[in-house]
Each structure stands twice: as C-alpha cells, then as structure tokens.
Amino acid sequence: MSQIRFVHAADLHLDSPFTGLRADAPANVADALHRATFEAYGNIIDLCIAEQVDALLVAGDIFDSADRSLRAQRAFVNGLERLHEAGIRSFICHGNHDPLDGWEARLTYPSSCHRFGPQFEGVPIFEQDPDTAVVYGISYPVREVRENLVVQLGRVEPGPFSIGLLHANVGGNPNHDAYAPCTLGDLELSGVDYWALGHVHTRQTLREGTPTVAYSGNPQGKNPTETGAKGVFLVEVADGANVRLSFRCTDAVRWAHLKLDISELQTEQELLDEIGELVQESLSEAQFRSLVARLTLSGRGPLSESLRQPNFIDDLRSSINEDWIDRSPFAWCERIENLSAAPFNRAERMSGSDFLAEFLRVCERAKADLQVQEQLRASFDELLNHRRYRRDLPEDLLKETDLPALIDEAELVALELLTSDEEK
Amino acid sequence: MRIEKLHIEGFGHFADRTVGPFESPIVVLYGPNEAGKSTLLSFLQTILFGFPTRGGAQHYPPLAGGKHGGRIDLLDQSNDRYSVHRIQGRGGGPVTVQSGTGELQNETTLARLLGHHAENVFKSVFSFSLDELHSDRLLKDEDINSQIYSAGMGVVTLPDALKETKDKKERRFLKGGSKHSISQTVEELKEVNAKLNEVASNAERYGRLIERRNEIHEKHSQLHTISSQLKTRLDYQRRLKNGWDDWVEFNAAQESLKDIEIITDFPTDGLRRLEQLEERIRGTRQAYEETRGQVELEESKAKTAIEHESILVHADSVRYLERNREHFESAVRDLPPRELELKHCEQRLEATLKEIGPGWSTARLEGFDLSVAVRNEVSQFGERLRKSEEALERLRAALSQEEARLHEAMKAEGAAQQELDDAPEPIMGKEQMSEHRATIGRANTGLLELKAVRERASTLQDQLDGMSGVAESGGLGAHQKAFTGLVSVVGLGLLIGGALLGGAALVVGAIGGLALIAIAAYLLAQHLAARASGVSRQASPIQDALARAEAEREALEANLSEYRDILGLESMDSDSLIAYAGVLDENEGRIQEVAVLRKNRELATESTKERRVSVEQSNENIAAAEAQQEQMRSKWQQWLRAHELNEAHSPQVVEAIRGKVEQGLDRLRELRDLQQRILTMKESTAEFFEAVTPLASEFEIGLNKDEPTSATGAADKLKTLHSDVEKRARQRQVAVEALAEAGQRLEERKRDLQKAEIELKELLRSGGASNSEEFRKREEADSQRKEFEAKLRESLNRLQRICGPGEPLEEFRIALSKTDIQSIVDQERQIAEEIETIDSQLADLDTEFGSIEAELGALAGEDESSRLRMARSRLLEQIREHAREWAKLTLAERLLGEAQSTFERERQPGVVRNAEEFFKNITGGRYDRVTAPLGENTIRVTERNGLSKEPEALSRGTREQLFLSLRFGLVQELCRIAEPLPVIVDEVLVNFDPDRALRAAKAFVQLSDTNQVLVFTCHTSVVDYFQVAAKELGSTEPALIEI
C-alpha cells in the first residue's frame, strides 16, 4: 500500500482576540497580533502545498462563531481554495467555538473540502481509491456538547486506514471545558487508526502505535500561558499502518514567560543586561519569530528596594520595550510581575513580640483556616455584587482565586508599608 | 530618694528658712495663697536640677536677702544621707553634694539619686501642678510617650500603612465612587461592547446580502432569457417593416412591365446622345455666325487712315521737349531774379572791400595770406604785447604802495622824536646813583653805631656814677641795663635799616634785628636771675671803656658829616636818608623811560630808510619793463610793414581785418557762382527754342520767339499730337492682327458643323428613326422597360438583405404577403415596449447587485470587530488585574486590622495597664479600659458600656484624673527600673468631686509605699482627704507642715 500523508491541525481560532494582555500594544505589535492567527493558517496551507500532502484535517474551533468574523471565515475558505487548486483535499469538523448552529457567513467551500455534519460519517481521502483511507468525522451541532460522541461512531469497518476527526476532551483535562468527553479507552475501541483531535491547545500525543491519538495543539499561541512553539502534525502513514508524526511550527508570534531571580544582581544595569540576554535567548529559541513576553522577577536581593520604587517597574518595561520593540523580529514585554522582596527573615520576625510579629501570625492563621478564608472571600462581594458593575464584570472574576497565594501577596504589600522606615 | 529637709538661704521671699524634716511618707504642705507653695516647689526643682541657664539670677531672686540658693537634705533607698547645695551661678549654679559624713560626692551621685531622669521627665511625671495635669503635654513629650506607647516594630508606621492600603484599594475600587480604575475600565468596556454589538449586526447583514445577491442572480438570468427572445421577435418585425416598401415596389414593377413594348438593340444612351448632338449643331452654328461678324469688324478697323502720322518720325525730338519742358520753364522764370541777385552780390563785395580799408581790391583779397602760421604770429604778438602791458601795470601799482609806506614811516619817525624831546631829564646818571645808594647804606650804619656808642657811653657813665654810693641798691645794674638796651636798639636799627634799604637788606636786617632783640631779652633775664647772688664791679675798667666809647662816637660823627656832604643833605638823620632814597628811586624810573623812547625813535629812523630803498627799486623795475615793451612794439611794426598793413594797427585790428578778408572772399565766390548759373540758364532756353521751332512749323502750331511761354505751349501740343497719333497707329495694328485670327476661326467652325450633322444622321438611323421626334418616342419606351426591370431586381435584392443571409426569401415574401404595414408597426411597438420594461428591470438588478458586491467586500474586509475584540480582551484583563489588586489590598487591610485589634487587646504596655488600674479605681469603675492606640499619640478610654473616648471628649475633672492615672502608671513603671523619686504635687485634687478626690488621695497613699509624696495645698479639705485616706487604708498618717 502506498504512503498516506496528511496534516493534522486544530483550534485555529482565526481572528479571535488574544487574551491576558492588559497593556495596549504598540501599533506594530497590535498589527502583528491581529495578523498572527491568519499568518499561522497561511503557514499551514503553505506547508500542505510544499509537502504535497494528500489532505488537510482540521479538528474544530476554526473560528469563534460568537465573534462573527467574516474576515476569519473568508480567510479560511481562501486557504481551502488554494489547497483545491493544488489538488489537496480538506476535511473539517466543527467544535464548541464554531458549532453548526453558530453564526456562519454563507461562503462557498471548494468541492475538494468536506465538512462533517452532526453525525459521524466516513469519507474516503482518495475519491478514486476509496479503500485506501477513510476519514470519520463529526461536528458539534451546538456549542454545549456534553455527551460522548465517540460512542456514536461505534466500531469502524476494517480495511482502509481510518482517521477520526474529533473535537473533544479526552481523559477529562481539567484545564479545558468538558465538551464531548471521552476516554482513551473509548478511542481505542473504535477501531480508528489515527485520532486527529482538537480542543486542547497543548500539543500532546496521548497514545502512540495503533491507534495513535494526538492533539496537535493550536497553531498559534493565544495567551501568555500558551508559550513555546505552536503548530501542526505532519502525519505520514506507511503501508497503511505505520504512523509517523512530525511536528511543524506554524506560529507567527511566540509567547514567552521570562523568569529572572534578582538575588545576585547588584545594579540596575546588571538587571537590564540579564533581561536583554533572556530576550535574546528567547528570540533565538523562537527561530527569530517575534516575541510577546511576560517577565517575572523573583528573589530577595539588593535591587528589591529599587524595584519597589513607584514607577520603577513601568519604567523598566518601557526601557525593555524601547530596546526591542522596533526591531524585526520584535520583542514586546507585555507585563512585569515583581515577586521580589527585600531581605526579610519571616520566621524570626514572626517569633517576636512586636506588631509585625502579630501581623505575620494573623496572616499565617488566615492561610491555615478555611473559615477565615471564607470570611475574607466574602469581602470581595462588595465588588462582585455591585449593582452597577456586576453585569459587566467577567463571570469568573476572583472566583478561582487562590486565596492563600493572595494572602501571601497581601502580606507582602503590608510588610513593605510597615517596614518602610526600617530600611531608611 | 526621699527629701528630708529644705534649707533656703535666699529664694523668693524666703531667706534662711528651713522646711522639714519630712518624716512621714506623705507630707502635706499647707499654706494659704501667696504663702510660697509654688516658690518651694520651684526651689526643690532648682536645687536638684539647677537654675535656668539664662536669667538664673531673675529666677525667684532672694528678695529677703541671703545667698541665692540653698540646700536639700536627702536620704537614698539605703537611708544614706546626702545634702545637695546649690547657689545661683554659671551653668545653672555650682552644686555641692556631700554625704552624711561630710564627704564630697561627684555629680554621678546626684544623677543616681535622681534616678538618672532628665529634668523634663522629673517635672512632667514626678513634680507637677494643676496646670500641668490639665495639659496633654505629657503625651507629646517624646521621652515620656515612648514609655506610654510601644515603640515596637510596625506600630509607628501602622496608621500610614493602613491609610496607604486604603488609598490604594480605593483607587482600584470604591463602593459609591466613580473615579476608581474598575469603574473607568468597565465604562470603557461598555463602550467597546456597544461598538461590538454594532459590528455584529454587520454579520447579519452579510447573510441577508448574500441571499439577496443569489436571488438577483436568478432573476437576472430569467429576465435575460425573455429579453433575448423578445429581441429576436422585434428584429423580425423590424425586418418586415424595413422590407415592406420594397415588397410594394416589387409588385408594382411587375404590373407595369406587362404593358410596355419590347425594343431590341436600341442604341445605348440614345436620347442623351441625340440631345447632345442637337445641342452641338446649334452651338457650332451660332459660333460660326459670331466669327463671321468679327472678321467684318476687324477688316474695317485695319483699313483706317491716321492724320499727322509723320510725327511718329520725330519721336526723339518730342521726347526731348517733354523732358526739358520743366527745366526750360523754370530757367525762363528764374532768370530775372538771378540777375537782380547778381547785382546785389556785386554791391556787397564792394562794401566789404571798403570796410577793410582803402586800396583793397578783389585781387588783393585773393592775395591776402590767411594761413594758420600768419594767424599764429599775430596771435603771439598780441599775447606778448598784452602781457608786457600787464607787467608794467603791476610794477606801477607796487611803486605807489611803496611810496605810501615810506610816507607812513616818515610820519612815525617824527612822532618818536617828539616823544623823546618831551620826556623829563634824570637828575643824575646811573653810576652816581649807585654811589649815593652806597653812601646812604654807610650813613645808616653809622647812625645806628653812633646811637649805640652813645648809649654805651651813657651807661658806662651811669655805672661809674653808681659805683660811688648805691652799691647796696638791689636795682638793676646800670651797665647791664645799658648793654641790654644797646643790643635791643641795634636789633631795632637793623630792622629799620633793612626796611630802608629794601631787597636783601630787609631780610638780613630783619633776622639780625630780631636776633639781637632776643639776646637783649636773654641778658635781661640773666641779670634778673643773678639778682639774688649780687655782683659788684670795679670802677676803673669802666672808665676805660667810657673813654673808648667817646672816641668811637667822635669818629662816627665825623664820618656822618662827610656822608651828608656827599649826598647834599641838610641834616643827617634817618628821615632825611629815607627821603633821599625816594628821590633816587624816582630818578631811576626817569632813566629807564628815556632809554625806551630813544630806542623807539631809532627803530622809526631805520624803518624810513628801508622804505626809501624799496621805492627806488620799484622805479628801476618800471624803467626796465618799459624798455622791453618798446622793443616788442618795434618788432610788431616791422611785421606790419612786411605785410603791407598800417603800422598803427594793433594785433587785434589785424585779426579783425583778417576776418573781413575772409568775408570778402566768401562774397567773391558767391558772385562768381551766380554769374555761372545765369549763363547756363540762358544757354538752355536758347537750345529749347531751337528744338521746338521746326516741329511747330511742320505741324502748324503757333510759336512766338519773343514769348518763351509760347514755346512751352507748342511743346505741350506736339506732345499731345504725338501721343494721339501713336495710339491710333497701335490700334490699327491690333485690328490687322485680329482679322487674321478671326478668318482662321471661321474656317474651323464650318468644319465642326459639317461633322456634327453627319453624326446625327448616323444616330437616327441606328435607332430605327427617320427623325429626332421618332427617335425620342422609341427611346422613351425602351427606357421605361429597363427602369421597371431594374426596380424589380433591386427590390428583390433589398428584400434578400433585409431577410438576412441564409434566411429563405420565399418565406419572408410569404410573410409579407400575409400582413400589412399597420399590423407590422403595431407588433413592433408592442414588442419594443416589453423589451424596455425588461431592460429597465435588468438595470435595476445590476445596480443592486453591484452595491451588494461592494458592501459584501467592505464587510468581509473590515477588521474593526477584530480590533474591538482585542480591546475587549485587554479591558477584561485589566479588570481582572484591578480586581485582583483590589482584593489583595482588601485582604491586606483586613489582616492589618485584625492584627491591630489583637495587638491592642493583648499587648498594651505596662504604663497603660498600670494607669488603667488607677483610673478604674479613681473613677469608681466607670471606665474600665485605658488603651494607647497603635501608632497614635493619644490615649483612649472605654466606659463600662463599651463607649470609647479620647481625652478631648472627657470632662475637665475626668481628664485630669486620666492624666493623673497615667502619671501614676509612669511613676510605677519608671521606678521599676530606677531610684524611686518623690512625687510632688501642687493642688491636683481641686477639680475632683469629693468621692473621686478621696479615691485619688487613696491612690496617693498607696503610691507612698514606694515613693515619698509631697502635697502642696491651700485647701484644708485636701488635708482632710489625705488624712482620711491614710486612715482608711491603715497607713501612716500624713505629716502636716504649715508654711
């Protein structure tokens, strides 16, 4: 049997906004971010054409229906047309962000594209040779699909190499909504040789061999937590059974989380130099893609006091951005988290008899006592239940907050104020 | 430390006063107002801590005497006795500390006895009056409030920390506020959401537009099909309409052909050819006739005879006359005036010759040398003569000036001589004068010496007289007096002599005179000094001296007599000498005046001499110039003679003659020109006459030889005649030539006519006609037939074209045969209207389609929603960030508050706890809590019912009780770590109600267990409180000391 080659992509989220950015990006960065999902998709199409694959498979969440972005849908169809012209077929299913009942521009898809409906169906990759490979896919009819869709598939016909195209949460990944939940076992039982999954943005191979079960992850990181290389799987099937996966980067802008311990740093210049090196390393790792970085400073050292000066962090961020923003590729530091603190022996201070000791003991009790935490959490209601703002505040605002961690931060704030004259 | 006794040496109104001993733990010092309680309190503080460093002397000055200060006897905790003695002085006053055994102690001992407390602490805590109790200064003293409030970590900064936390929190979110970050971000978010909603409607519109676009597409296709069909039908109807006329014509032609005879081989284009031939014959015949008329006309012209034709032979003579006619006429006209002008010329020349001078003729005029060289010679002579004349004039003017100056000099000389003659003569010469002056000097000296000698002699005589009987006399010695007087007189003489002599003598005289007067004064003084000692002299030497003096006097008098004679004076005394010296001075002035006048006269004489020489010199110069001028004149006359001119002429006259000669020559030339012109004119008129005369005779034109104008008239007639004959001859020649040409043309016309007539006959024959009329009839029939046949073909061809290529013509003809034009037109109009309607609908659809396409493109390309979603995402993130920060600060605030409550509840300082106990007791338990809030310089009390108050909110008495309690707390706390000091209070219970006053007294009694208590009061009730309190508590009765 001849070789089958296809690209497995998912979660394109074309034209959906980047999240987690609180600062206004400069024009060139904003522009790059606007274009990033489209460029990543363009890279996928380029890859398909360059590699002369047999098909492109997209496992849902191509765009966010709620966004109603014509631009996204047109761009998607344009890409498929390019594939059509190159003689490459495309198979797509829809997920929770682009369900079948969601808003959709009435665009004409090329004839070489097959969009799966709300029921599982099998479609041969090669029309002339239907026994070589078959793609089984299903789309979400609505956003909230809470049932196990794999069960609907049953067991596929043996013979052709079978590929399952599905948007689902396999194994109950807690970081993602539990849509179309199923287990790895369910997938194994289906008789499908390769499960091309979407929904989880982190690239992972849940199972190798037969069947091979993989999330390609999203082709472009969408928020500060989606760091590192993003892309698609190029899948090559030899002799109708041996599956080989190779990851291909497609992201246009890369997210990085830079971490710097300031304990050993003596001067502001050393700090800037260290940050410069970190940025340079990240750019190299990103193979000179543009970078959006979040910087976390930690440790206790001589620079702690400077870092706590008003505006210092803002100035530092401006300084970094001045250095890197106008380059090509650029690096933009979107946020600096300062978790550094002045040298402070907490345990020793807590054993004292002064007010500071009392305060530290109060904090310690609060972190240990869930009842106290509940009382503290109740104080947030002043904001969350505010009649004027509650409708506009994010639903999950402060809901998932790790209170002990927040108490630690509160303690740090109070300590800085209480010990402000101690250092003078 | 306990105070045992006070000994006041001098302080305020106390002097040498001892107060004490204080034997009881509580001592009440009672005294009415102004007894000196405050003075005693101040004494205590002053001796222990020193006088004020500034104004110490004014600090309770010792009004009743004694040294400013005193002594305090003390006992320490071990009951060892000490005395502290201090007197006002520098640095707070010297202090002496002695032990009970009299040993001097150093200052450390005093510090120890005072528990190492600073003065301010002692005064605030241990020794205070009602005023101090009322004030909250206690809380503001840093040394003290550090005892009250814990200075521990975190406490000082807590209020700031709480405030800053609150401020930061409220900047993020404040219930009821609108300026906080969350509010602002939410507002921004609302705006973005609103815009997103707007943009979202774009998507709906996109869908609707797509649907509509598809509908339009379908409808467009349908209408387009119908329109095409209609257009095909319309086209057919239009072709029928277009073909209708042809169809009608075709039918008509077919009908007409049936009635027309068929003629074969009728000449092509026969009628036109016939008409052309007939026209040609008519034209040719007419031309022939016209040409023949011309031949006859020209023939008559060519035979015409011309009168005076012979004049043509004299054409050259006639042209000469014509050319010179004007010239002749002007010559005849100009001759008389020119001859008159000639006469005038001759007269003017004659006059000019006369003006130049007698003997001048035209020949001499022409011989006169007018060359430039001669002209220059005359000019040079003129110049030289003029210059020599000018030089002579200048010399003559100089001479008259010199003569005037000589006259002036002579006048001055006479005046100088007159002045000299008028001046007075000196009485003596210079040498004699100097001799007399020397004599005056000597006489003067002689006079002085004589006077001195006389006085000396007189003195000596007096001495000698005294020697005999007045030896015991204490008066001044006569010789002494005499010498002194002599010296004085010589001195005066020198002064006067100097004055008389003047100049240097005055100076010498003055100095010498003054010196001598001084010596005399000295001698007189010496003598007076020597008065007491007494000196006696011998008589003999005096007599000798007297004799010498007398001899001297005589000699001097002889000399003076001689001088008088020399000077010619009548007497010899100082006055005569001074007067004679004046005469000499006057004479010296005269001598000088005469010398000056003489010098003046000599200068005037010299000047006269010089002027005279100048006059002579001028005369000589004039003579020389005149000789030179004469020589020049002689040369000039010589030149005049050489040029045959009058010797009296000056060069200017010769120049004038020369001008006249030039003028005369001009006139001569003018005369000769005129003569030549008149001659020429006469010759030309004669020549003209000669030319005209024979012609006039030949052609019988009248001519008067004496009348020049008749010649011009004859010449004009000859010219006219010649022109006329010449013209007629040319006309006749033209007619001859035209006759030849017309004859030739007449022949040609004749040939043409014959040829055309032959061609006409041939044409008639070919048309089968015998004459033209028959030919025309036959031709008409033939033409009609051909015309109908052509129409038939053409209409068929057009029908074929209209029918269209490939279309069966037969069907088209059948269709035409089955309809009529009205039906066709109606059909066409109906179909066209239908098409118009459909086309209009199609255009509307196209327009709508285009706008939909454009809108779809715009909607698909917009990235506004993308940008807005990005903004929304960013704002949501900002809200999260603000909320998290707010939550963090809320927690920090809550946790700090919690820690504060716990700390205040559980960890109040000892001072406050002690004070709380006292205050609770004094107020009878109404207030059960006293707290020092963290980081705040205040005290808060809490009533039993939980109501919390700050000191400002308490009544005066209660506030005093609170501050008293605080002091009790402080006393106890301080005494825990240092020497317990006496507590000294001045009227602190007066604002307390009796109950609380007693409770307070009890507190004092309790305090007296550890600290001596001294109570100053003027109220017996206070004494009673303490006594009652001590009794109730079973303590030692307070000691009462009245001040």
How would you sum up this structure, described in words?
The complex is a heterodimer of chains A (424) and B (1043). In chain A, the strands form 3 sheets. A 6-stranded mixed β-sheet of chain A has the order 4-3-2-1-11-12, with helices on one face. In chain A, strands 5-6-7-8-10-9 form a 6-stranded mixed β-sheet, with no helix packed on it. Chain A has a 3-stranded parallel β-sheet with strand order 13-14-15. In chain A, strand 2, helix 2 (70-85) and strand 3 (89-93) form a beta-alpha-beta unit. Chain A has helices spanning 27-51, 70-85, 150-153, 184-189, 268-285, 304-308, 312-324, 346-350, 355-368, 370-378, 381-384, 403-418, and strands at 4-9, 55-59, 89-93, 113-115, 121-124, 133-137, 161-167, 194-198, 204-207, 212-215, 231-238, 242-249, 253-261, 290-298, 331-338. The model of chain A has no long low-confidence stretch (mean pLDDT 90). Chain A has 12 helices and 15 strands. By secondary structure, chain B is of the alpha/beta class. Helix content of chain B is 72%, strand content 7%. Chain B has a 6-stranded antiparallel β-sheet. In chain B, strands 8-12-13-3-14 form a 5-stranded parallel β-sheet, with helices on both faces. The longest helix of chain B has 77 residues, at 181-257. Chain B is flat, with a radius of gyration of 89 Å. Residues 470-477 and 532-537 of chain B have low confidence and may be disordered.
Outline the fold blueprint.
The complex is a heterodimer of chains A (424) and B (1043).
Chain A: E1 4-9, H1 27-51, E2 55-59, H2 70-85, E3 89-93, E4 113-115, E5 121-124, E6 133-137, H3 150-153, E7 161-167, H4 184-189, E8 194-198, E9 204-207, E10 212-215, E11 231-238, E12 242-249, E13 253-261, H5 268-285, E14 290-298, H6 304-308, H7 312-324, E15 331-338, H8 346-350, H9 355-368, H10 370-378, H11 381-384, H12 403-418
Parallel strand pairs in A: 1-2, 2-3, 3-4, 6-7, 7-8, 8-10, 13-14, 14-15
Antiparallel strand pairs in A: 1-11, 5-6, 9-10, 11-12
Helix pairs in contact in A: 1-2, 9-10, 9-12
Chain B: E1 2-11, E2 14-19, E3 26-30, H1 37-49, E4 69-75, E5 81-87, E6 95-99, E7 104-105, H2 107-113, H3 119-126, E8 127-129, H4 130-134, H5 137-140, H6 142-148, H7 158-172, H8 181-257, H9 270-302, H10 315-356, H11 362-367, H12 372-422, H13 430-467, H14 478-501, H15 503-529, H16 540-567, H17 574-642, H18 651-698, H19 708-766, H20 772-803, H21 809-817, H22 821-861, H23 864-906, H24 910-922, E9 927-931, E10 940-943, E11 948-949, H25 956-977, E12 983-986, H26 994-1007, E13 1013-1017, H27 1020-1033, E14 1039-1042
Parallel strand pairs in B: 3-13, 3-14, 8-12, 12-13
Antiparallel strand pairs in B: 1-2, 1-4, 4-5, 5-6, 6-7, 9-10, 10-11
Helix pairs in contact in B: 7-23, 8-20, 8-21, 8-22, 8-23, 9-19, 10-18, 10-19, 12-17, 12-18, 13-14, 13-16, 13-17, 14-15, 18-19, 24-25, 26-27
